[in-house]
Design goal:
Layout (H helix, E strand, L loop, with lengths): L7 E4 L3 E2 L6 H21 L4 E8 L3 H10 L3 H19 L5 E4 L3 H16 L3 E11 L4 E3 L14 E10 L5 H10 L3 E3 L1 H12 L2 H4 L9 H4 L3 E3 L4 E4 L5 E2 L7 E2 L1 E2 L21 E2 L1 H6 L1 H4 L8 H10 L4 E5 L3 H15 L6 E5 L2 E3 L2 E2 L10 H9 L15 H23 L6 E3 L1 H30 L13 H26 L3 H22 L1 H4 L5 H25 L4 H10 L5 H6 L30 H11 L72 E3 L5 H4 L5 H4 L4 E12 L2 E10 L4 E6 L7 H4 L3 E5 L5 E3 L2 E3 L2 E7 L4 E4 L1 E2 L13
Parallel strand pairs: 1-3, 1-15, 2-3, 3-4, 8-16, 15-16, 17-19, 20-27
Antiparallel strand pairs: 5-6, 5-7, 7-12, 9-10, 10-11, 13-14, 17-18, 21-22, 21-24, 22-23, 24-27, 24-29, 25-26, 27-28
Helix pairs in contact: 2-3, 5-6, 6-12, 13-14, 13-22, 14-15, 14-17, 15-17, 15-19, 16-17, 16-19, 17-19, 19-20
Length: about 800
């Protein structure tokens, strides 16, 4: 295949819009961006296509939107905009961003459904079973079965359209075992094959002799109870273990309608099952279903996908359902599905219900502060907006390096602010950054800022060390290419880090600062040789690090005097790296610090930010068709630039959908003078009094008017780490936003509260709890023996402005 014909199509999972993005999402997207940048340096930008996006259909989204008091379309517009705003801040270079609510996707999904139906792979039937709303899947078991999300399933009886998944069991096993359909890492491959084969051990008569693979290939063998079949490689499987799959739902309507003629065969209106819907994005984004010549050409050029990056919890959907859909439709399969592990914080999966979500914005803000806007800068003055973008890209590099250096792709890995700061200081500030600063400063000071000709030092020991460095660089270039191809990104950075240490050791052994003070001709020659070898090593290191640290390497490349590294990448200047590419006589660019050292106080700053995040500004990236905006994860001053599957598990909003129009309860009575007032922000209740003297207590109008009751809208609701009863709310009063802590976590999930118009006591003095300030109190009625609080709320349709006072 010629260079012009080569292509590389890479996808992230499309991210489910039931929660704001966190570093788990960033981890997957960063890995994809690194791979895409690497491929562009090898193949040319026009032949690489990088897709991401958001998955926006399903029962869970519909319920979350209802709980927030907005339409599902408004809900998805808002959360999808938050993802796009974050990728913008981080400089992610995707080529396309697909939303499953877009017309192009709807059209393509309906075409795929129709194709499967016309080929006889879809039929109509009725099913009763246990459905996990959180995972959008049916689960085997009796009523009350705990689903994959840890919450009870619902008993659902529905008329559904079914896909004949069972027909593809043997074919899928053969494709995976042969490697034609590649699943990595090996642990995930074995997991998929185990699922496809069924419980063969239980079904096989242990006394029966084992088959001869040469004679049993493609044959069947009767055991005491079941038929055992054998794959092309002679491994046994249980036919029928792979069941047919429901691919429609009729109990809710937030999804893509089943198209004709299938739709007319049912008396109910069906929407297409979210996994058939979501998985099809990989083709609909390219133009599947379109009749536009440009779309058709793009689809023909890039499909099949070269690499699907997914989280390990969605491996079955991508390695069983997706290839079966494609086989049934007569379409090529993706070449490879690569799963990664979970990102653990405090040794547990990140989950909003656990309160251990780490927001990417916290890291961007904290490390961005290490790069303050310069007072004086050559050329035109820099705007605050420009410099904020620079800070974000620098901080994004720090996060990119840490996640890929610390966590072996495919395995679970731990995250902590302490480890982040330590790794940054050791590898970037004290390692790569310090080497660049020392070497280029010596060239600036002693060689008039001009690179000398590359040659070996005259001193034998230095010449031997320089030659060893040369050999190491050649070995590194070769091994890096293999590791990038195998997506062994941690090994890539480990190898580069070891080479940086070797170069730094050579530089220190050579003592160029001493050579610079000598007038001896050999010393001057050694100085030029040492600086040339070190600068060439830095060029190699910088080129290899570019896909991982695009912002920082651009700064080093410019300081080396090599111009724009992105232009070099596009023009093939980073291809086929060889020793000796730094031309003598090249002038250095302006020098400056690349990686300022991070003080340990940054750890506490990030910890505090996660415990008490600031309410973000409304997103500027919400589609024009919606008039309702919601806060993105953090304010970004740089909108613009180039999405249910999830790279990490999300929470199920639960089966309880909170009402948004509960009646306003009677005002709670103030405490008697000798009583302690309730904690600010927990909740005020209109309790069913049991003490007659308390029930008949009276207050005057003067007492009443002192209480300032206001209408507020819940913008953010989150659990507080290690506080089982408390929720942290950010509420909008119209004239200001404030934080309130409320002890209602056992009765309300965060999803129940977001978007509700509630009543708060607005004039309570602020109070600290769990180290966080709470300013206000929710108004609620106490119901039942356990005193469950029923919040006083207004409906979204009520014509009342935020901040309105109740009187």
């Amino acid at each position: 295949m010629s260079d012009a014909q080569k292509k590389f199509y890479l996808t992230t999972p499309i991210y489910y819009v039931n929660a704001r993005p966190h570093i788990g999402h960033a981890y997957t997207t960063i890995a994809a961006d690194v791979i895409a940048r690497r491929q562009r340096t090898l193949l040319g930008e026009s032949n690489v296509w990088f897709l991401t996006g958001t998955d926006e259909h399903g029962q869970k989204v519909q319920r979350s939107a209802h709980a927030a008091g907005i339409t599902p379309q408004q809900f998805t517009d808002e959360v999808s905009a938050q993802f796009r705003a974050l990728w913008q801040r981080m400089g992610i270079t995707y080529d396309d961003y697909i939303r499953t609510t877009e017309p192009r996707h709807v059209r393509g999904v309906q075409k795929l459904f129709s194709e499967l139906y016309s080929r006889g792979h879809i039929y109509l039937d009725t099913y009763t079973g246990q459905y996990s709303v959180g995972e959008e899947m049916f689960v085997d078991g009796p009523p009350g079965t705990i689903g994959p999300d840890g919450k009870p399933t619902e008993t659902v009886t529905e008329e559904n359209f079914y896909f004949r998944l069972s027909a593809f069991q043997g074919q899928l096993i053969n494709l995976i075992e042969s490697g034609e359909f590649c699943v990595e890492p090996e642990a995930r491959r074995n997991e998929v094959l185990s699922f496809l084969r069924g419980n063969v051990n239980q079904a096989t008569d242990s006394d029966a002799p084992g088959p001869d693979p040469q004679t049993w290939v493609g044959a069947s063998q009767k055991s005491a109870e079941n038929t055992i079949a054998y794959s092309a490689k002679g491994t046994s499987y249980l036919p029928g273990a792979l069941k047919d799959l429901s691919i429609s739902r009729s109990s809710f309507d937030w999804g893509i309608p089943v198209p004709e003629p299938a739709a007319s065969t049912s008396q109910k209106k069906h929407v297409i099952y979210v996994w058939l819907d979501a998985l099809a994005n990989y083709m609909t984004a390219l133009g599947y279903g379109s009749e536009n010549p440009d779309d058709i050409a793009r689809l023909q050029k890039f499909w099949p996908a070269d690499l699907h990056l997914v989280g390990k919890e969605i491996i079955r959907f991508h390695c069983v359902y997706w290839p079966a859909f494609l086989l049934a439709a007569g379409l090529p399969l993706p070449k490879k599905v690569q799963a990664h592990g979970w990102l653990l914080f405090e040794e547990s999966k990140m989950s909003k219900s656990r309160g251990n979500i780490v927001r990417t914005e916290t890291i961007l803000d904290a490390f961005g502060s290490l790069k303050p806007k310069p007072v004086d800068w050559p050329g035109a003055p820099l705007s605050d907006e420009y410099w904020k973008h620079e800070q974000d890209l620098f901080a994004s590099d720090v996060l990119r390096y840490f996640l890929l250096r610390e966590i072996s792709f495919g395995q679970d890995g731990s995250f902590s602010f302490d480890a982040l700061v330590q790794r940054y200081n050791s590898d970037l500030a004290n390692g790569y950054g310090n080497l660049v600063s020392r070497a280029l400063s010596m060239i600036e000071k002693n060689l008039e800022g001009t690179h000398p000709e590359l040659h070996l030092p005259a001193t034998p020991t230095l010449a031997e060390a320089a030659q060893k460095l040369w050999n190491s660089a050649s070995t590194l270039i070769s091994s890096i290419a293999d590791d990038f191809t195998g997506i062994r990104l941690t090994r890539v950075l480990t190898s580069i880090s070891a080479f940086i240490t070797e170069v730094d050791g050579f530089f220190s052994l050579s003592t160029p600062w001493k050579l610079a003070k000598s007038d001896a001709p050999q010393a001057r020659e050694d100085l030029r040789a040492v600086l040339a070898v070190t600068a060439e090593s830095i060029r190699i290191i910088t080129a290899l690090l570019y896909p991982i640290l695009p912002y920082s390497t651009a700064k080093v490349w410019a300081q080396l005097g090599l111009g724009d590294i992105e232009a070099a990448a596009k023009n093939g200047g980073l291809n086929h790296l060889t020793w000796g590419g730094l031309k003598p006589g090249t002038k250095l660019g302006p020098l400056g610090p690349i990686f300022p050292r991070a003080d340990k106080g940054l750890i506490q700053i990030m910890t505090n930010a996660e415990q008490n995040p600031i309410a973000p500004a409304p997103s500027k990236l919400v589609d024009e068709k919606t008039t309702h905006t919601a806060p993105p994860p953090s304010e970004s001053t740089h909108p613009g630039a180039a999405p249910r599957t999830s790279s990490l598990p999300h929470d199920n909003p639960g089966t309880q959908v909170g009402a948004s129009s509960a009646p306003v309860p009677e005002l709670a009575k103030p405490p008697a003078p000798h009583q302690e007032a309730p904690a600010s922000g927990i909740f005020a209740t209109a309790a069913a009094a049991t003490d007659p003297s308390q029930e008949n207590a009276s207050i005057t109008i003067d007492d009443f008017v002192k209480i300032d009751l206001r209408v507020a809208k819940v913008l953010v609701a989150e659990r507080i780490p290690k506080a089982d009863k408390l929720l942290r709310l950010e509420v909008d009063l119209g004239y200001e936003k404030r934080q309130i802590l409320s002890g209602i976590a056992q009765w309300y999930t965060p999803e129940d509260l977001i978007g509700r118009r509630i009543i708060i006591v607005a004039n309570l003095a602020p109070r600290k709890m769990r180290g966080l300030e709470s300013h206000g109190m929710l108004l609620a009625a106490s119901h039942g023996k356990d005193g469950k609080p029923i919040l006083a709320t207004f409906a979204e349709t009520d014509e009342i402005e935020l901040g309105s006072r109740l009187s």
